[in-house]
Design goal:
By secondary structure, the chain is mainly beta. It contains two helices and nine strands. The strands form three sheets. Strands 1, 2, 3, 7 and 9 form a five-stranded antiparallel beta sheet that branches. It has a two-stranded antiparallel ribbon with strand order 4-8. A two-stranded antiparallel ribbon has the order 5-6. The mean pLDDT is 93.
Amino acid sequence: MIGKIVGGPVLPHPSMIARLWFPKYTDHTTPIHQDFVHFQGSFDTYTCWAPIGDCPIELGPLALIPGSHKIDRVMDHHFSLGAGALAINTQDLSGVWLSDDFEVGDSLIFHSLVVHQALPNVTEDRMRVSLDNRYQGFGIPIAELGD
């Protein structure tokens, strides 16, 4: 799938992240952000987010603003609680947030500039487990070389 998106061979990023999110731990829910601020390199990097098992809304799947990557720039981020510790000011955003219930085998693939967040896990006793894998076209630098 990623090869079709990037139009050729794919380079999987070596840092794959497993996220474990506890119930009712809402103060530290992953804030509104763009992934590019965390890994940089090329805007044309894609995240594949996949829950491990069913992930209904109350378990805290991702939500995103479709088309928000078309701004073609990294928005200003500031310190925030939650995974990644960076957030975008909500007054700088426009668009409609979308999310849905996810079922086992579902995944969400999005561009590094797409504005997204995790929804809070409001269940009483269920942990959300998900994977973040990142990919880009082979031959595109992962990071810029310094002087």
